């Protein structure tokens, strides 16, 4: 099947035929599939309850490159605040559900990547320190030197445990990611056993999930995301 559709990904340990609501044993997901056979899968983590047009465009563009793109609705549990982010066991449970959904459809584990923005970029980083996936990309990941929540480790402390090649994209003028902290993260990820690359752009024009597609830095950042997955998901 190609195109965009919604589905449910069972949590591990739940019955795949479970008819309980999403807050039970299943994660609601949005899927964008490519034409023909998929070359791998990318789990897109996002922190809003709605997809922006730019984020949908990015997902469609990734599918156009041959990836099956799957975006879980992380805030499907009734007591979760979308302003805080989803971390800890619940993050890994939801990611594992997406991972299993992909592998059940023939996607090889080492061709599965994760992509996230802002606090979801933090989540993508932490997934890459806890799961042996193919590659990870974080854009404007917060919580570099201090954890965002009690369930999220600071990135500089988690960095040596990276299990997947990781790309980090940051804006030099982003108050949530000061350049000095980004430099600390660059040094910390260099001590991991996997490849890493940290790229800083002037200003804030580095977001492939915004409407800045005509900005040269935004185009460059999207190209870097595509190239990172292309190089590491094999």
Automatic annotation (TrEMBL):
Gene3D superfamilies: alpha/beta hydrolase (3.40.50.1820). Residues 1-29 are annotated as: Disordered. This is Carboxymethylenebutenolidase. Residues 31-230 form the Dienelactone hydrolase domain. Pfam families: DLH. InterPro entries: AB_hydrolase_fold (IPR029058), Dienelactn_hydro (IPR002925), Dienelactone_hydrolase-like (IPR051049).
